[in-house]
Amino acid sequence: PCAVAALVALSFSGAIGLTFLMLGCALEYYGVYWPLFVLIFYFICPIPHFIAKRASDDSDAASSACRELAYFFTTGIVVSAFGFPIILARVEAIKWGACGLVLAGNAVIFLTILGFFLVFGRGDDFSWEQW
After folding, report:
1. Does 118 fall in a domain?
2. Residue 89: pLDDT above 60?
3. For residue 6, what are the domain limits?
4. Residue 57, C-beta contacts closer than 8 angstroms, at least 6 positions apart
5. Which of 24, 33, 51, 121 is a plausible cystine mate for 102, CB 3.0–4.6 Å?
6. pLDDT value at residue 122
7. In this structure, is residue 106 part of a structural domain?
8. How far, in Å, CA of 44 to CA of 81, rounded?
9. Is residue 121 assigned to a domain?
10. Cα 87 from Cα 46, distance rounded (Å)
11. For residue 63, pLDDT beyond 80
12. DSSP per position, 29-78
């Protein structure tokens, strides 16, 4: 019951984030689809975590170099996702309004990804590893 409610809430927030991204691209006033390249950052964001989870089997350790490196790469990916639309707006490839919508979508999507790992990454009965 609790996992289903969490999954519904996460899917709703993901849909809201993608709506912001699509509005930043598809509104006739903005009219360019360059911000859709941010989707690449959404897909590669969890990859360092998955690799670190596989590489470090000692889950009782408080910290490991592999996990810290995964946090570093994930932080770089997230910062790049926020910087990309700002650079596009700065070189006037997109308008600043579209940049704002994409940044709002980034915030919602990355919080959704974080929420997914907080809710389903505990390793208990509702772990994402069972999906």
Report:
1. no
2. yes
3. 1-111
4. none
5. 24
6. 66
7. yes
8. 11
9. no
10. 23
11. no
12. TT---GGGGHHHHHHHTTHHHHHHHHH---TTSS--HHHHHHHHHHHHHH
